[in-house]
Prior knowledge:
This protein is an alpha+beta fold. The chain has one domain: Arc Repressor Mutant, subunit A (Orthogonal Bundle). 33% of the residues lie in helices and 9% in strands. Strand 4 and strand 5 form a beta hairpin. The longest helix has 16 residues.
Amino acid sequence: MPFRAIALAAALGCGLPTSLQASFIDADLIYSSGKSAAPKKTQRHRSARARARPKSELECMARNIYFEAGVEDAKGKIAVANVTMNRVKSKHYPRSVCGVVFQRGGKSCAFSWTCDAKGNRPPRNKLYRQSLQIARLALSGALKDVTGQADHYHADYVRPGWRKPDKLSARIGRHIFYKMLDG
């Protein structure tokens, strides 16, 4: 059964604005109480690309959710947040959300939207507000992992060379999730 933002904020203590409705998030995707975690500030960089980056972990997470799964339902958005957080917790990735989101490997980007300019200014619409709500919940530790601890995913209409069918952990919305790494 869906929650309203007021009930969700009260249950989680994460301070969601009452003007934002969280009725799109099923209660079974959220832990009964989350850890309180303030978003971290990221370092300022000198390059123009880096200056366009969000200045907080919350904004990095919200943009990643929006640009990777903005039109998906809450579970699809939560799955992207789960992968981002699973990477932050892994020894194989940077230790911050912004570090994970903007990580580059050679000529490729960890998340395709970070390779182009569309991530510089997200729209302030309903889908972005939903992404922002889920980002707050993810950073507070309130979201259940719906991906089977996945650290990789791709859209269901592509077949990247790195995918390993035996590592598939979930199919959610238009994405296929994999647990590729240990730890």
